[in-house]
Structures are given as C-alpha cells and as structure tokens.
Amino acid sequence: MTSRLLRLFLVAGLSAAIALPASRAGAATAGELNRDGRAALNRLLALQPAAKTLAPKAKAILVFPKMVKAGFMFGGQIGEGVLLKGGKPVAYYNSVSASYGFQAGIQSFSYALFFMTDSALKRLDDTQGFEVGVGPSVVIVDEGVAKTLTTTTAASDVYAFIFGQQGLMAGMGLQGTKITKIAK
Q1: pTM to 2 decimals?
Q2: pLDDT at residue 53 above 60?
Q3: Region label for 101, one of left (φ > 0), alpha (ψ between -120 and 50) or beta (otherwise)
Q4: Torsion-angle region of residue 107: left (phi > 0), alpha (psi -120 to 50) or beta?
Q5: Phi-psi category of residue 135: left, alpha or beta, with phi > 0 → left and psi -120 to 50 → alpha
C-alpha cells in the first residue's frame, strides 16, 4: 500500500470516527440530561451492588447517560453528562476521548464517576478540563474490584463504572478522556 493511499485511509477513518459520534450523541437539553442521568444512575445502582454501596458516601456523582464511541484505527467518543449532588443536578459536562490503535466498530454506553473526596470534586470544579488519569486516582470498577469493594475498603478519590454497552467495538489502543464543564 502506498504512503499516499495509507494516509487517505487513515484520514477517512478519523473523519468517520469523529463525525459519527458527534451526530449520534447530539446536544441534550438540561431537562433531558437530568432525566436521562437519573435513569442511568438508577439502572447502575440496580445492577451493580458496589455502586449502590458507594453512592451514599459519594460527594457527587457525574453521570454520562449516553456516550457514543466509533473508530477505525483512529477513534473517538463523545457524550454529555450531569453532576448530581444529593440527587440534585448542579452542573453539566461533556466527555470527549480520542484513541489510536487497532480498533474498529461503533458502540454506545453509559458511565458514572463517583467522586469520593472533596479534593477530587474541587479538581473537577477548578480545572478547565478534568482529564481522567491525571490528578486524583481513578479506579475503574470491574467485576474483580466490585467483589472486594466496601465502604471501609473504598480509599480512592474517584470510582468509574462503565455500563449499558450496546453495539460492537473491538481492539486495543491508546486513549485519553477529557471532561469539560458546559452551560445548559
């Protein structure tokens, strides 16, 4: 394959990966985000005992009810979420990720970040863009972590739950996620 053809192929894949999620995860109103965020959180709490254990101790929970991820070599994911404190919406955020590597497909999913400390929540409020993996420790709760997680063993700043996956996305790659406050 020639260098020019390879570049064309990569540019086309990147364009599709960015355009498709943006069109599918269109901007929701504050009311829609509030409703969808609460519904997604209720589904998570019903399905995941570890989330139900952490929720009462969390300072706030940031719920992204519908993320869309697509890619072919280059990938992207995008969605909007609501920050709930004491069950009430207090702010809105978007989440954007880019990735590169062996990957192909499209998938939608939800995710929630449980902020367990005031310092982690302050970092979310104070930054121009909260980057997952930079700053407070973030633990992705999978089945192994969930089995041993209790309110006495929960020592991290932020716990992340990914749930409700639909579609097919396969591959491996490098990914960074940035969460930015938005006005609604």
Answers
A1: 0.75
A2: yes
A3: left
A4: beta
A5: left
